[in-house]
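Sample intake — Epithelial splicing regulatory protein 2
Collected from: Anthoscopus minutus
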Amino acid sequence: SLVVLFGATAGAYGAKLGSDERELILLVWQVVDLQSKKVGTLHKSLVKADNLDLSDQCREVSGLTPEGLGKAEPLDRVLQQFSQLVSSDLKVLGRNSYTLCSDGQLLIRQVLHPETSKKNFLLSDCFYSFYDLRKEFHTCYPSSAAVKDQTIKTMAEYLGLGTDEAEEDFGVWQVKTMVAIIFSMLSEGCNHVFTEPETVKYKYETGPCSKSETVDSETVIRARGLPWQSSDQDIARFFKGLNIAKGGVALCLNSQGRRNGEALVRFVNSEQRDLALERHKHHMGSRYIEVYKATGEEFLKIAGGTSNEVAQFLSKENQVIIRMRGLPFTATQEDVLGFLGQECPVTGGKEGLLFVKYPDGRPTGDAFVLFSCEEYAQNALKKHKEILGKRYIELFRSTAAEVQQVLNRYMSTPLIPTLPTPIIPVIPPPYSIATGSARDCVRLRGLPYTAGIDDILEFMGDATGDIKPHGVHMVLNQQGRPSGDAFIQMKSADKAFMVAQKCHKKMMKDRYVEVFQCSGEEMNFVLMGGTLNRSGLSPPPCKLPCLSPPAYAAFQTAAVIPAEAAALYQTQALLPTTRTPQASAAAPPAVTYYPAQAAQLYMNYTAYYPSPPVSPTTVGYIAAPPGAVAAAATAAHTPILPQPGALVRMQGLPYNTGMKEILSFFQGYQYAPDDYNGLIQLSDQARSVLQAPKEWVCL
């Protein structure tokens, strides 16, 4: 037997049914005995929605009113009545089992399953299997229109059924016409057999994903705006009614290994993916979730793995995964099992634990744990921020894809951080940023945060030819992002005055930009971290320049750094001497080295990246090739940093930190004091501290 089912919501109708998250307001159904070709009673039931505000389309098509719906039963009661009435009709027809049959998949997948999931009650088993009348019709009549273009009306017209929609109530005509279509398909000329129903998965299945798999890009979406604590099960619930592939939810992590509010989801076929895209800006709790197309390559990059250890760990199916973070480095499997206790037993004991380690075997403080059921996982989550040893432990829900990502991230970390070769020696020409009181510079304030060098040059118009080489300087904030300010060095004060007059409050994209004439001295104050406002100049917190070019979206055009561009990153700026009377007596030669990675910066007009509080991320303190360093040292007779060697920059120090506290922080690390005296000029007091005989030394 079939139960022909039709429904409508308070919002969109037809091909957009369910796309606006509106609630169900109408159900109409009738039982059909396929063997005897008899039918049961036709039932029509209104559903009381939480929000009775009907759309104009709904009012026009259905003829329903909020007053009439206000007297109806809620959805859970209507579904109970549905089950009872269907059972009664089946008994009358001498049948005991049935399968639903609907006009397309939207009513079941996009309306009933999502709404009942949000309202926290379960659908009966009959709603997890159904026949799509449009697909069955196209199978029976291959010459008819494509499945996506079918409607009840077009199918009836194809068969020449003379039914008048205006003569029946809304919903009743649709069900009667669907029943007539089914009987036509069962006639002697067709003898159609309903054999392969559509299925809805009861729950999401976890599992590993290998990088060697082939993932169809037509089955992947990207969900954005997720709550950071959401798990793969939460995402599967958001897409309730659609079939997600096994292990098909991959939560994305940021550079710190924390979730960034995005996930890649892989569905079993493109049809399910297309339905998922219709849930764009549907809600998860109080947040709306954006849904976009993605590629198979993106999914494999996040979810794919090659580690046999991870594959073995994830081979236990249908397990709940919990991530532990902040474990003591000395923690053992026994310590973790003891911390979790008997109320939340780990699947397989020690085999259900996976410690995350660096390539050299050092622990990272992270671990993943498997639990066989939701109850055990909930008991474990209650231990969030409890103490193990002397540290509090964070516990979060996790996914198979997150396990792969975290392991891939740490296992790909080199033991000794290196940059790609080749390393190109560049001897910079004597070039420095202009100083002085001559007002030959302009300041741009209020730039769009997405503005790049090309945008500024276009904004300048004909005045671009009057900009000095390397004269465009972008100002970044403390997070290394564009601050909305920029400075431009012009060839003369007159040119700067003309630009300020011509471009002041001119529009760039959707914002107007203020342009002021200023001096090189004022520009340098801001570039070094000071402020320039109506009250005058406020000196920077640290007058030592520290160039730290981070990589962000506004500068991604690849270009080879010209030799003259190297002047922007002077060695003296990276390793400034202390401000003593003897500081200027003898300076080391300016030998600057740039890796191939740095060539990704756009340097047609060189961007200046002043941001003292931020550590270098793209062009760092890079050791030069030994031969080049030796040649430079021989030529200047000045000690140069030996190989191997490195400098570190400390960020976030307390303001009252002294030399002794810093050296104590690096206790246990070796350094060679004599080799650094010529490179970093120190006061006598500092040098005496460095050279004092101790068990520890720094740098």
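Post-analysis note: The first helix runs from residue 56 to 62.
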